[in-house]
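agent: user wants the structure for Phosphoribosylaminoimidazole-succinocarboxamide synthase from Candidatus Sulfurimonas marisnigri. delegating to structure tool.
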Amino acid sequence: MEKRELLYEGKAKRLFLTDDENLVISEFKDDLTAFNGEKKSSEAGKGALNNKISTELFKLLEANGIQTHFVKMLDDNHMLHTKVDVILIEVIVRNIATGSLTRNLGIKDGTILPFTLVEFDYKDDDLGDPKLNDQHALILGLVEHQDELDKLRRMARQINDILKPYFADKGLNLVDFKLEFGKDKSGNIILVDEISPDNCRFWDMESGEKMDKDRFRQGLGGLTVAYEQVLNRILGK
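agent: tool returned. relaying tokens verbatim.
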């Protein structure tokens, strides 16, 4: 598959066209950003780890009936996937209170939520990715109708129902995570982007150690070591 011109560059990935109009290539970068781009850095090997972790998790979800954009991993830093029209809604799934939920609502950090919380954020860096309710999303034209918002919530919960016990079996609490979705050429809503410690929070069940991008956000160090541990647990090493 030939990688052609750059289509888009985001915080963590570059997206390239290919010789197939229905397929694109993502290059996973080593760049790190936090707090809406206010904190920036880079750590060698981070992109490859996220590509490998995302590959395994997309395969797992596909095997459990979740349609994704994943086609195959091309090499350490490149993934081939279906071209989609991205829905500009970040779907946040929370099992345990931390981060912005704790700051905004005063829920004690580490509180296990009585049910899985699904939230929507507007995918717009200039606005700081603000919270959305259903009416906001419809007014902005981010989806065509209410049924699509219902489907995003339903798919998010299904993904959580697969991933939460999967990681628990590997000694990790899946605290919360961000999902992105898009529409393929047939108009089907499918899971896109990545699933990695960049957009998931993992806490070790025994030690409580943070195994995700919070190590960068909070200046804890050892980010790639933690990401590698997550990958090794996924691979059963």
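agent: one observation worth passing along. The longest strand covers residues 172-183.
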